[in-house]
């Protein structure tokens, strides 16, 4: 790296740190444009109940055209009969030396009720160094960053070695959804988004309790999402003459066994790489615990200590959580039907059918376990050396001394559809966003994280062109 580039990186890093410490500061023209687009996008309601993804992507199309893209470069496509579920696809032509890179971000958000929030969830509020709004972090920040980067590339008349494709999609937050944008595009318009690799959400930087960066995350895997229904039935009867064979008891006994069940622990390539990094990063007993589970065989004491953490248990094994219970039809009648909904997050490489068989064995013969929807059993992405090298170089320029860790998301994103289709997808934000209240009340994101992501993604896309 030459002296000019090192100096530019140092100045940018100092600027980002100043924003992080001092709250709102004067923005560069590029940052101001990003903030304006981000605000507009956040304030367009894209919930499933009353919102419109189409309105959001149409607004983004206006900005893209203002940067010089032609109408023919942009397509807005919605599933039949669902005009509010629009998806935007944009292509910046390269010279064709390499296969395309897909930049993907969903614009839909989970529901948010004004009466529950301290602030209007559909107004962007900047307060004490944070942006507050539904979608502030998940995932309109990434969407706005990709839009502004594509605008910048067009203005520069840059011709990369590969086509750059932007896809702003709908219905990532609903699982399963008949109008999921990525599934729709793969099924009906595969040629528009076909690529060698894709950048998506699911990976971000982490900070400690005092807001100091601890590591930057590159997501290469996510857990498989599968919901099961557990049903027990009975002839019912009058509640004045209760029987011991109540189906609620059958379900309760099975759920007690499920609560005590310990799913087998497995290290996938992604989680092994993650724990190798954490063993170097952590200190004291925590570091010894990570080193212990990397041994062959695993240190049982270290494993037991890690499994006391809900998060570590989710990283190391399948998990199945009871999310809904529905039983009975009257206060004075014995129940005829009990339905329990269990949502499982399954490690890549595990089979959904095997998890279902395990649940059936745990619940017993009186409870029928069935899949509530068709599973998407997608493989993890390979850990690409060229991407990891470029990602690490950019991180070192912007955040000197902050290590990079390969990660697995315990949640589920749209990468599963692309990976299943052979388009290897990687999650990243290039910013530090943990503790953002995603999907919860008063969702927020550090204001500095928006500009960190802008600087990071612009550099990374150029390196991977």
UniProtKB/TrEMBL annotation:
InterPro entries membership: ArgE/DapE_CS (IPR001261), Bact_exopeptidase_dim_dom (IPR036264), Pept_M20A (IPR047177), Peptidase_M20 (IPR002933), Peptidase_M20_dimer (IPR011650)
Family according to the record: Belongs to the peptidase M20A family.
Signal peptide: 1-20
Record's keyword annotation contains Hydrolase: yes
Record keywords: Hydrolase, Metal-binding, Protease, Signal, Zinc
Lineage of source species: Bacteria, Pseudomonadati, Pseudomonadota, Betaproteobacteria, Burkholderiales
Protein's name according to its UniProt entry: M20/M25/M40 family metallo-hydrolase
One Pfam entry name: Peptidase_M20
PANTHER family hit by this protein: N-FATTY-ACYL-AMINO ACID SYNTHASE/HYDROLASE PM20D1, N-FATTY-ACYL-AMINO ACID SYNTHASE_HYDROLASE PM20D1
Annotated Peptidase M20 dimerisation domain residues: 223-366
């Amino acid at each position: 790296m030459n002296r000019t580039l090192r100096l530019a990186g140092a100045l940018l890093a100092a600027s980002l740190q100043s924003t992080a410490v001092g709250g709102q500061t004067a923005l560069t023209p590029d940052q101001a444009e990003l903030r304006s687009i981000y605000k507009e996008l956040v304030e367009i309601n894209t919930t499933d109940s009353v919102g419109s993804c189409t309105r959001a992507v149409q607004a983004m199309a206006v900005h893209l055209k203002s940067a010089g893209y032609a109408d023919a470069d942009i397509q807005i496509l919605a599933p039949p009969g669902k005009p509010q579920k629009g998806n935007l696809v944009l292509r910046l032509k390269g010279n064709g030396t390499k296969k395309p890179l897909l930049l993907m971000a969903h614009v839909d958000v989970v529901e948010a009720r004004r009466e529950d929030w301290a602030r209007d969830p559909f107004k962007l509020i900047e307060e004490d160094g944070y942006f507050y709004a539904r979608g502030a972090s998940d995932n309109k920040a990434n969407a706005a960053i990709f839009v502004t980067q594509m605008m910048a590339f067009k203005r520069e008349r840059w011709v990369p070695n590969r086509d750059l494709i932007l896809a702003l999609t709908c219905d990532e937050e609903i699982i399963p959804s008949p109008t999921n944008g990525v599934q729709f595009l793969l099924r009906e318009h595969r040629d528009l988004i076909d690529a060698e690799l894709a950048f998506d959400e699911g990976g971000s930087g982490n900070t400690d309790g005092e807001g100091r960066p601890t590591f930057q995350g590159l997501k290469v895997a996510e857990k498989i999402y599968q919901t099961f229904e557990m049903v027990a039935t009975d002839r019912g009867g009058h509640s004045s003459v209760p029987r011991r064979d109540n189906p609620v008891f059958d379900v309760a006994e099975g759920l007690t066994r499920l609560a005590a069940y310990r799913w087998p622990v497995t290290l996938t390539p992604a989680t092994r790489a993650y724990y190798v990094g954490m063993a170097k990063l952590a200190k004291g007993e925590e570091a010894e615990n990570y080193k212990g589970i990397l041994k062959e065989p695993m240190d049982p004491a270290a494993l037991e200590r890690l499994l006391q953490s809900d998060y570590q248990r989710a990283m190391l094994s399948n998990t199945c959580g009871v999310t809904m219970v529905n039983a009975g039809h009257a206060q004075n009648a014995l129940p005829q039907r009990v339905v329990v909904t269990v949502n499982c997050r399954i490690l890549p490489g595990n089979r959904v059918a095997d998890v279902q068989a395990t649940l059936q064995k745990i619940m017993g013969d009186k409870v029928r376990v069935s899949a509530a929807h068709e599973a998407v059993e997608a493989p993890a992405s390979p850990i690409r050396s060229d991407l990891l090298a470029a990602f690490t170089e950019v991180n070192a320029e912007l955040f000197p001394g902050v290590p990079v860790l390969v990660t697995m998301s315990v949640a589920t994103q749209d990468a599963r559809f692309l990976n299943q289709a052979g388009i290897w997808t990687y999650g990243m934000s290039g910013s530090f966003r943990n503790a953002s209240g995603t999907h919860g009340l008063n969702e927020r994101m550090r204001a500095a994280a928006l500009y960190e992501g802008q600087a990071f993604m612009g550099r990374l896309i150029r390196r991977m062109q």
